[in-house]
Structure formats: structure tokens, C-alpha cells
Design a protein that fits this description.
The N terminus is likely disordered. This protein starts with 11 loop residues before the first strand and ends in a 9-residue tail after the last helix. The chain has one domain: ph1033 like fold (Roll), CATH 3.10.590.10. The protein contains 4 helices and 7 strands. Helices cover 26% and strands 33% of the residues. By secondary structure, the protein is α+β, with helices and mostly antiparallel strands. Strands 1, 2, 3, 4, 5, 6 and 7 form a 7-stranded mixed β-sheet that branches.
């Protein structure tokens, strides 16, 4: 099941934000996901449809991993001065449930989430709006993986 973009007038239950290591570090310093409207033309309407409390997930395209769960701390908005005018479409966020174990591609595909194309250098595949059902499935897969990892026995002591 591929991601479906929601019309701009719909409230979005969640959003997958695509980043790389460099942009991830900057986002976490400022606690805001920023988008360049020139690279993501439909992003302004989509981000402005994100309301406070929406769940956010981060896809690192270099590793093809998905992490989360983050939560929008306010509605998405446009700030023309942000990031020196480059990433003006923004969603401030906080850590909701920081399952610090990212999902590999096969794991989030098992949740019914798949990508139609892997051409991240093109402008076509960037960020994806999620339905409430997709947010629930991704959250459940992340939570289950985290809980399984916590139940593993500790490694034997080194001698």
C-alpha cells in the first residue's frame, strides 16, 4: 500500500519526513522539521494541514530506516525568515515515544507501508501524509521492536 497524499483541507494524522544525517542533526538542534517549498512544492499545503498532536516519523534515506515517534507541538506553518529563507515551511516537534531503534525497510513494509519509488534524488518522492490507520500500524511496529529489544538478555561479561 503506497502512501497517499491527503487533500490540503484534510487534517493529517501523521507525516513521514525524509532527511539525511546533516539535516537530521539540524532539525534536532532546533526541534523543528523544516521543508524547502522549492524542493517540495505541495509541502506548504500538506504541512499547513498538520495540526498540533499529529504523529511524525523520520525516514533517513541514506540508510532507508524509519524512526519515531515524534509529535507536532503546534500546527504546521510558514516562516519566511527560517533557516535563512531556505526551509520556510515548518513543523515544531517533540519526542513523543522515542523508540531509539529504527525500523529497517522490510519492517515498515510489513506494517503495510511501502514506497512507490526509491528515487530520492528526484523531487517527486519527499514527504508523505499518513492516515490514522497508518500511524497506528507504524507506532505498533516501532513499539513491538523496542519491547523485543528490551527483553533480550544482556551480553555476557567480558573477561
Amino acid at each position: 500500500m503506497a502512501f497517499q497524499m491527503h487533500p490540503a483541507n484534510d487534517t493529517i494524522a501523521g507525516l513521514i519526513v525524509v532527511c539525511n544525517n546533516k539535516t537530521k542533526d539540524e532539525c534536532f538542534k532546533k526541534m523543528v522539521f523544516g521543508f524547502n517549498p522549492r524542493e517540495f512544492p505541495s509541502g506548504t499545503a500538506i504541512v499547513e494541514s498538520v495540526k498540533k498532536g499529529a504523529k511524525l516519523f523520520l525516514f533517513q534515506h541514506e540508510f532507508k530506516t524509519l524512526e519515531g515517534i515524534y509529535e507536532a507541538t503546534s500546527d504546521g506553518y510558514v516562516d519566511r525568515r527560517a533557516f535563512r529563507g531556505k526551509y520556510t515551511v515548518q513543523i515544531p516537534f517533540r519526542f513523543d515515544k522515542a523508540y531509539n531503534i529504527p525500523l529497517q525497510e522490510s519492517e515498515f513494509e510489513n506494517a503495510g507501508i511501502s514506497w512507490p519509488n526509491y528515487n530520492f534524488m528526484s523531487q517527486r518522492v519527499v514527504d508523505h501524509a499518513l492516515s490514522a490507520a497508518q500511524v497506528h500500524r507504524l507506532s505498533e511496529v516501532l513499539r513491538n521492536k523496542y519491547n523485543r529489544q528490551r527483553q533480550l538478555p544482556p551480553p555476557p561479561p567480558r573477561i
